Amino acid sequence: MNVGFGRRTLVLRAGPVSVRLGVRTCVSVLVLLALAAGVGVLALGTGQFSLPPAQVVEVLSGGGSRAARLVVLDWRLPRVLLALLLGAALGLSGAVFQALLRNPLGSPDVLGFGTGAFTGVLVTMAVAGRGFAVTATGALVGGLLTAGAVYLFAYRRGVQGFRLIVVGIGVSAFLTSLNQWFLIRVNLQTAMAAAVWGQGSLNELGWAQVGPAAAVIGVLAAGLLALGGRLRQLELGDDAAAALGVRVGPARLAYLAVGVALTAAATAVAGPVSFVALAAPQLARRLAGTAGIALAPAAATGALLLAGSDFLAARVFAPTTLPVGVVTVALGGIYLVWLLAAQGRGGGR
To answer: What is the pLDDT of residue 304?
Structure first.
């Protein structure tokens, strides 16, 4: 264990590769993951067919009765896993954008990627009908095209964070109006299906979505690791990053591509789930006590936020299950008020 700049750190070495980790960061991640696992066990054991936590753990360990295994493994586990996976993806995506833009409001929600995904879903539903594959494809294409348009409109001999946020807000406003026009023009069934999808929900998702989501998000997370520690250097500013030997333009574009893909993948599965990408990095930064945005705590915080929100969505008004996006919006409104108050007191970054 070493002490660096007043922070205790651990240095892990495997051959020629060494990684320096903050002790508080490691503890925060472990606590967040333990809380997320606890929420998952609680979600697996509650509902119309209730099971005590010990029985849920027994089923997850390979035992349990046939009925308990049916309820836990077939009915509820896919939803819990998707909440953890998609929450981690949104947390990572928000961390990337907020670090690059050096602004706590720089998240995919604010930049309009979710709104663009909604536009893509409306267009594909109107052209090709309904279905998970059609919806996922439309969301993916819509989110990526929106990200490309925001980047191009904001590009002026480079991309600055504030200009990207302002352009994103403008594009989001335009797409919101366009979506309203689409909802009026399409038939009633398509409009209702699109409106439900637009709330962001994990209802009716199962094992068929878990595998592809885990594979795509795993590859993108590995891509972030492969990019190394340049995100921390870019967070210092373009001039400082260039002075440290970072090729700013290509590095920023690579991080933006991975961040957009993480958001698009999560949105394609569950619809636009707001505020997780916005809140998770800032909450994680405060919990870990880091000067900048840290990826691992942000991913763990996102997983905990989405799993907890989905648990509330499924249980607060049971037997009615709310879309998880309704809960995240409600919690996100409280978070946004707190963030603005902290900024006003000078407590924000």
So the answer is: 95
